[in-house]
Inverse folding.
């Protein structure tokens, strides 16, 4: 039941994050299509963040269903994840407003990297609750997505200083590999 | 259970969208009724959007109750719908601030058109889960509202360049035909 | 179940309304107590609105528990109520910023009056579902709070042009009579 | 059931408070790391508030599970707590923007002090519902955290005029002693 409430709270925070990002769109000066052009980079960075938060929402849901017993440790690891994600509207707005300048793009990646590491810590703590269930632990151990994402974010951060386009390729890459929900967990849950 | 959670998340996003739109009302300069006049178009566009989001909230609820099995496809189609709706506070503010100028009004219609198309895709994906239940599929196939709305929005978009009043007629028209919840689905659900 | 969802949605909207009002507090110019003085009227009007929304949240909850069958009519009456309440952050900010000038104070009252009338319509529609239960209808018929509130708000609106202090007395009066939840409904519910 | 709904409403308010604080981060002027420096104090005060709200969310959850019968008194004490917490985004922004100047830091502590006192009142009202269960009352009577927090906040308020660093030590101290959920309540609940 308590994991349930943590899920509801996290859902609330994620729903607010995904929605208030739009408050960063300032009204254009003019009233024609031309006036919208400068919104372009903001909208593009909004799309990125919308997809990332959507991915987190979906996978977080799968992950929390694996919780056996709630404790303070899980709660604080979850809040740590939400903390980094709560900074996404700010980094999204800065990256968009700067037209994908190097440092704002790098910061965007750093926050996502820290969120990914927190997610990995949370997953580890939950997997540890299943230490007796070796099949489950083995299945989760093969979770290459969680393992590879931080490196991809780190590459995106570093390449931001070469070109935002190269950096963008890595951001898109992480989105693609996470796009589908984690079938393995779903499979493990059904297999019981 | 998972459809339940998608519903709760969507509800949260819709509740936030409907409420933060008011944050776009800037405080009037003066302190008399005259000072409120320039808020007129903003309030009018807010009323439009409030009604549309209310309609989506209601019909979305009916629709999700038809979900048989949740999957990634439904989740992403639902997020696609929420994405377009999340842009409504922005287009509402721009349309109001511009006193229903042609392009902001057209953009307002385009976003609603894209939301309507996403809703239609979501509905289709859910109906496909009932492919064996020919009575249900037949009943849903008669859903002229979902089919006619995109054309009405498109007409509103195009006529925005003739006159915002003509465009407004089509916006009101869509609101009217959707005003009541989808009796057919309710009927089908009860018929079980 | 559907009344449940309407309740959850309304709760979400009320929670957002009550919280985003604080976003209207602009940061003071200085960093001493003196700089806070001009925030005074804003905080006072925030306290008023916080109490009113709290009262609505509480009574709305009691009211929705009386719903027998959900329908489009109830849903739209509920959305009408939420519409007026969604304007409260705006009227609160304007009233506070104007230091309780006549027109902003009157507008504040008008919006609350319209919310009160919507609440009364919603209550009536729900009571009508119990037309066979004459004891219940009789008990609800004695709901003097719902009947007297609109007149008190109207008086507050009109006296705003005499003095904000007199107007304020009537606003406080409504808050006081609604302060406690509706014992009669609670009593009727238990009596079953 | 009603305590359940109060919990859901409180969760919603806390989720919004924790998320909208980020809206106070203004976009930096430049697009390099240097431009982020002035955000430092804002982010530091955000971290403080995030941790405090997280602590309240967690302990509030434990506390509400002890409620035996809901009544107007509990509801209003809960709203009083939420009222003070709803001011946290404002005091957080002012403290950060002032670079931890004396008065904003003191006000930050005062609001947290008032929240702590409200929490203590709420806890007392709930403990009183268990007056027959002397073991429980005795266990709760030993709740030194709730008793000591107001004095620590008060010290933080007063020392803010000596040095923000000393004040900060006391803020950190309260966070540390509350960091873990109240094991005693959890223990008492299990012991049943």
């Amino acid at each position: 039941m308590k994991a349930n409430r943590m899920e509801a709270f996290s859902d609330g925070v994620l729903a607010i994050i995904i929605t208030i990002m739009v408050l960063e769109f300032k009204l254009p000066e003019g009233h024609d299509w031309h006036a919208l052009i400068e919104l372009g980079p903001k909208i593009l960075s909004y799309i990125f963040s919308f997809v990332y938060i959507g991915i987190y929402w979906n996978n977080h849901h799968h992950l929390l269903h694996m919780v056996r017993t709630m404790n303070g440790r899980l709660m604080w690891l979850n809040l740590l994840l939400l903390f980094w994600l709560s900074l996404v509207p700010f980094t999204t707005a800065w990256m968009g407003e700067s037209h994908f300048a190097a440092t704002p793009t790098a910061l965007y990646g750093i926050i996502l990297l820290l969120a990914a590491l927190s997610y990995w810590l949370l997953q580890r703590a939950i997997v540890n609750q299943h230490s007796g269930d070796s099949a489950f632990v083995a299945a989760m151990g093969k979770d290459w997505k969680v393992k590879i994402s931080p490196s991809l974010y780190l590459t995106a951060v570093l390449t931001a200083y070469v070109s935002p386009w190269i950096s963008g390729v890595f951001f898109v890459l992480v989105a693609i590999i996470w796009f589908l929900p984690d079938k393995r967990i779903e499979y493990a849950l059904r297999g019981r």
Summary: Chain C has a mean pLDDT of 87. The interface with chain D takes residues 7-8, 11-12, 14-16, 18-20, 22-23, 25, 27-28, 31-33, 35-36, 47, 50, 54, 57-58, 61, 179-181 of chain C (CB under 8 Å). Chain C has one domain: 2-191.
